[in-house]
Amino acid sequence: MSGQIRVLIVDDDALVRAGLTMLLAGVDDIEVVGEAANGSEVEHAVAEYQPDVVLMDIRMPGMDGLAATEVVRGRDRSPEVIVLTTYDTDDHVLRALRAGASGFLLKDTPPADIVRAIRAVVAGEPILSPTVTRQLIGHVTGSDGGARRRRAREQLDRLTEREREVAVAIGRGKSNAEIGRDLYMSLATVKAHVSRLLEKLKFNNRVQIALLAHDAGEA
Protein backbone atom coordinates (compact mmCIF):
# COMPACT_ATOMS: atom_id res chain seq x y z
CA MET A 1 0.00 0.00 0.00
CA SER A 2 1.22 3.50 -0.80
CA GLY A 3 1.21 6.42 1.61
CA GLN A 4 0.80 6.34 5.36
CA ILE A 5 -1.14 3.74 7.28
CA ARG A 6 -4.02 5.46 9.08
CA VAL A 7 -4.64 4.13 12.59
CA LEU A 8 -7.57 4.64 14.97
CA ILE A 9 -6.96 3.84 18.66
CA VAL A 10 -9.90 2.63 20.74
CA ASP A 11 -9.42 2.24 24.49
CA ASP A 12 -11.29 3.50 27.54
CA ASP A 13 -7.99 4.24 29.31
CA ALA A 14 -6.68 7.67 28.31
CA LEU A 15 -3.15 6.71 29.36
CA VAL A 16 -3.17 3.70 27.04
CA ARG A 17 -4.39 5.85 24.16
CA ALA A 18 -1.72 8.45 24.85
CA GLY A 19 0.99 5.81 25.12
CA LEU A 20 0.06 4.17 21.82
CA THR A 21 -0.18 7.56 20.12
CA MET A 22 3.30 8.54 21.31
CA LEU A 23 4.69 5.13 20.35
CA LEU A 24 3.40 5.42 16.79
CA ALA A 25 4.19 9.13 16.38
CA GLY A 26 7.78 8.38 15.51
CA VAL A 27 6.98 5.86 12.77
CA ASP A 28 7.27 7.39 9.30
CA ASP A 29 4.66 5.26 7.54
CA ILE A 30 2.01 5.26 10.31
CA GLU A 31 -0.29 8.11 11.32
CA VAL A 32 -2.69 8.05 14.28
CA VAL A 33 -5.72 9.81 12.81
CA GLY A 34 -8.08 9.56 15.77
CA GLU A 35 -9.08 8.05 19.09
CA ALA A 36 -12.24 6.67 20.64
CA ALA A 37 -12.89 5.96 24.33
CA ASN A 38 -15.76 3.49 23.95
CA GLY A 39 -17.05 0.94 21.49
CA SER A 40 -20.14 3.03 20.88
CA GLU A 41 -17.93 5.79 19.42
CA VAL A 42 -16.18 3.51 16.95
CA GLU A 43 -18.61 3.51 14.03
CA HIS A 44 -18.70 7.30 13.92
CA ALA A 45 -14.93 7.52 14.32
CA VAL A 46 -14.33 5.05 11.48
CA ALA A 47 -16.64 7.03 9.21
CA GLU A 48 -14.95 10.31 10.17
CA TYR A 49 -11.29 9.29 10.13
CA GLN A 50 -11.29 6.50 7.49
CA PRO A 51 -8.57 4.44 9.22
CA ASP A 52 -6.80 1.51 7.62
CA VAL A 53 -6.32 -0.20 11.00
CA VAL A 54 -8.22 -0.03 14.29
CA LEU A 55 -6.39 -0.94 17.51
CA MET A 56 -9.36 -2.14 19.55
CA ASP A 57 -9.45 -2.67 23.30
CA ILE A 58 -11.67 -5.62 24.20
CA ARG A 59 -12.86 -4.75 27.71
CA MET A 60 -14.65 -1.39 27.73
CA PRO A 61 -17.79 -0.18 29.52
CA GLY A 62 -20.91 0.16 27.43
CA MET A 63 -20.26 -1.36 24.01
CA ASP A 64 -17.22 -3.61 24.33
CA GLY A 65 -14.59 -4.25 21.70
CA LEU A 66 -16.27 -7.44 20.53
CA ALA A 67 -19.51 -5.69 19.56
CA ALA A 68 -17.54 -2.80 18.07
CA THR A 69 -15.45 -5.21 15.99
CA GLU A 70 -18.61 -6.78 14.58
CA VAL A 71 -19.91 -3.32 13.67
CA VAL A 72 -16.64 -2.26 12.03
CA ARG A 73 -16.12 -5.46 10.07
CA GLY A 74 -19.70 -5.33 8.83
CA ARG A 75 -19.00 -2.10 6.93
CA ASP A 76 -18.13 -1.94 3.24
CA ARG A 77 -14.37 -1.44 2.80
CA SER A 78 -13.91 -1.92 6.51
CA PRO A 79 -10.57 -1.28 8.21
CA GLU A 80 -8.52 -4.12 9.64
CA VAL A 81 -8.99 -4.66 13.38
CA ILE A 82 -6.28 -5.69 15.84
CA VAL A 83 -7.71 -6.42 19.27
CA LEU A 84 -5.82 -5.40 22.40
CA THR A 85 -5.97 -7.51 25.53
CA THR A 86 -4.20 -8.17 28.79
CA TYR A 87 -4.57 -11.96 28.66
CA ASP A 88 -3.94 -14.23 25.67
CA THR A 89 -6.53 -16.73 26.96
CA ASP A 90 -9.36 -14.20 27.03
CA ASP A 91 -12.43 -15.83 25.44
CA HIS A 92 -13.37 -12.40 24.10
CA VAL A 93 -10.27 -12.51 21.88
CA LEU A 94 -11.45 -15.69 20.18
CA ARG A 95 -14.91 -14.23 19.67
CA ALA A 96 -13.38 -11.08 18.17
CA LEU A 97 -11.35 -13.21 15.76
CA ARG A 98 -14.52 -15.02 14.72
CA ALA A 99 -16.07 -11.60 14.10
CA GLY A 100 -13.31 -10.72 11.64
CA ALA A 101 -10.43 -9.24 13.63
CA SER A 102 -7.10 -9.93 11.94
CA GLY A 103 -5.31 -10.82 15.16
CA PHE A 104 -4.57 -9.66 18.65
CA LEU A 105 -1.81 -8.01 20.63
CA LEU A 106 -1.10 -8.18 24.32
CA LYS A 107 -0.94 -4.71 25.82
CA ASP A 108 2.67 -5.29 26.88
CA THR A 109 3.76 -6.16 23.33
CA PRO A 110 7.11 -4.50 22.48
CA PRO A 111 6.69 -1.33 20.37
CA ALA A 112 8.53 -2.76 17.36
CA ASP A 113 6.15 -5.74 17.30
CA ILE A 114 3.11 -3.45 17.39
CA VAL A 115 4.45 -1.57 14.38
CA ARG A 116 5.15 -4.83 12.53
CA ALA A 117 1.65 -6.08 13.32
CA ILE A 118 0.02 -2.94 11.91
CA ARG A 119 2.04 -3.23 8.71
CA ALA A 120 1.28 -6.95 8.46
CA VAL A 121 -2.52 -6.68 8.63
CA VAL A 122 -2.52 -3.91 6.03
CA ALA A 123 -0.55 -6.28 3.79
CA GLY A 124 -3.25 -8.92 4.31
CA GLU A 125 -1.28 -11.08 6.73
CA PRO A 126 -3.07 -12.22 9.92
CA ILE A 127 -0.97 -11.74 13.03
CA LEU A 128 -1.99 -14.92 14.78
CA SER A 129 0.14 -18.03 14.75
CA PRO A 130 -1.49 -21.48 14.56
CA THR A 131 0.05 -22.26 17.97
CA VAL A 132 -1.70 -19.31 19.60
CA THR A 133 -4.96 -20.17 17.83
CA ARG A 134 -4.86 -23.69 19.27
CA GLN A 135 -3.94 -22.31 22.70
CA LEU A 136 -6.92 -19.96 22.67
CA ILE A 137 -9.29 -22.68 21.52
CA GLY A 138 -7.91 -25.02 24.16
CA HIS A 139 -8.72 -22.53 26.91
CA VAL A 140 -12.25 -21.80 25.74
CA THR A 141 -14.85 -24.48 26.36
CA GLY A 142 -18.10 -22.85 25.35
CA SER A 143 -21.41 -24.51 26.13
CA ASP A 144 -22.33 -24.39 22.42
CA GLY A 145 -19.29 -26.38 21.31
CA GLY A 146 -21.37 -29.18 19.80
CA ALA A 147 -23.62 -26.79 17.92
CA ARG A 148 -20.61 -24.84 16.67
CA ARG A 149 -19.02 -28.02 15.37
CA ARG A 150 -22.18 -28.95 13.49
CA ARG A 151 -22.42 -25.49 11.94
CA ALA A 152 -18.75 -25.57 10.95
CA ARG A 153 -19.10 -28.98 9.31
CA GLU A 154 -22.17 -27.81 7.41
CA GLN A 155 -20.15 -24.86 6.08
CA LEU A 156 -17.28 -27.12 5.03
CA ASP A 157 -19.74 -29.48 3.33
CA ARG A 158 -20.73 -26.62 1.00
CA LEU A 159 -17.20 -26.48 -0.37
CA THR A 160 -15.70 -28.43 -3.22
CA GLU A 161 -13.23 -31.14 -2.27
CA ARG A 162 -10.30 -28.95 -3.29
CA GLU A 163 -11.61 -25.91 -1.42
CA ARG A 164 -12.05 -28.05 1.68
CA GLU A 165 -8.46 -29.29 1.42
CA VAL A 166 -7.21 -25.71 1.22
CA ALA A 167 -9.39 -24.67 4.18
CA VAL A 168 -8.06 -27.52 6.32
CA ALA A 169 -4.49 -26.67 5.32
CA ILE A 170 -5.04 -23.06 6.40
CA GLY A 171 -6.39 -24.37 9.70
CA ARG A 172 -3.17 -26.30 10.15
CA GLY A 173 -1.15 -23.12 9.75
CA LYS A 174 0.15 -23.77 6.25
CA SER A 175 1.34 -20.84 4.13
CA ASN A 176 0.19 -20.50 0.52
CA ALA A 177 3.55 -21.86 -0.64
CA GLU A 178 3.25 -24.89 1.65
CA ILE A 179 -0.33 -25.52 0.52
CA GLY A 180 0.76 -25.40 -3.10
CA ARG A 181 3.57 -27.85 -2.46
CA ASP A 182 1.42 -30.28 -0.46
CA LEU A 183 -1.57 -30.17 -2.81
CA TYR A 184 0.43 -29.88 -6.06
CA MET A 185 -1.00 -26.50 -7.03
CA SER A 186 0.61 -23.33 -8.31
CA LEU A 187 0.78 -20.35 -5.97
CA ALA A 188 -1.69 -18.48 -8.16
CA THR A 189 -4.14 -21.39 -7.91
CA VAL A 190 -3.84 -21.46 -4.13
CA LYS A 191 -4.51 -17.73 -3.93
CA ALA A 192 -7.56 -18.15 -6.17
CA HIS A 193 -8.89 -20.91 -3.90
CA VAL A 194 -8.35 -18.73 -0.81
CA SER A 195 -10.21 -15.84 -2.46
CA ARG A 196 -13.10 -18.15 -3.37
CA LEU A 197 -13.20 -19.49 0.18
CA LEU A 198 -13.45 -15.99 1.63
CA GLU A 199 -16.22 -15.10 -0.80
CA LYS A 200 -18.17 -18.34 -0.41
CA LEU A 201 -17.95 -18.38 3.39
CA LYS A 202 -18.48 -14.60 3.65
CA PHE A 203 -15.32 -14.25 5.72
CA ASN A 204 -12.95 -11.31 6.02
CA ASN A 205 -9.61 -13.08 6.40
CA ARG A 206 -7.67 -16.35 6.73
CA VAL A 207 -7.97 -16.41 10.51
CA GLN A 208 -11.70 -17.08 10.20
CA ILE A 209 -11.05 -19.93 7.76
CA ALA A 210 -8.55 -21.43 10.23
CA LEU A 211 -11.04 -21.14 13.10
CA LEU A 212 -13.74 -22.79 10.98
CA ALA A 213 -11.45 -25.75 10.29
CA HIS A 214 -10.68 -26.02 14.02
CA ASP A 215 -14.38 -25.78 14.93
CA ALA A 216 -15.17 -28.59 12.50
CA GLY A 217 -12.48 -30.78 14.04
CA GLU A 218 -10.53 -30.88 10.79
CA ALA A 219 -7.37 -29.11 12.00
Please explain how this structure is put together:
- The protein is α/β, with parallel strands linked by helices and 219 residues long.
- α3 (65-73) runs parallel beside α4 and α8 (161-171) crosses α10 (187-201).
- The chain folds into two domains: 5-138, Rossmann fold (3-Layer(aba) Sandwich), CATH 3.40.50; 144-215, Winged helix-like DNA-binding domain superfamily/Winged helix DNA-binding domain (Arc Repressor Mutant, subunit A, Orthogonal Bundle), CATH 1.10.10.10.
- A five-stranded parallel beta sheet has the order 2-1-3-4-5, with helices on both faces.
- β3 (53-57), α3 and β4 (80-85) form a beta-alpha-beta unit.
- The two termini are 32 Å apart.
- Helix content is 53%, strand content 13%.
- The model has no long low-confidence stretch (mean pLDDT 86).
- The longest helix is centred in the C-terminal third of the chain and has 15 residues, at 187-201.
Sheet/helix structural class: alpha/beta
The proportion of strand residues reads 5-15%
Distance between the termini: 32 Å
Enumerate how many helices there are, as a single number: 11
Fraction in helix? 40-55%
Q: Report the principal-axis shape.
A: globular
Which tags fit this structure?
219 residues; alpha/beta; five-stranded parallel beta sheet; 11 helices; 13% strand; globular
Write a short abstract of this structure:
The chain has helices spanning about 15-25, 40-50, 65-75, 90-100, 110-120, 130-140, 145-155, 160-170, 175-185, 185-200, 205-215, and strands spanning about 5-10, 30-35, 55, 80-85, 105. It has about 220 residues and is of the alpha/beta class. The protein has a five-stranded parallel beta sheet, with helices on both faces.
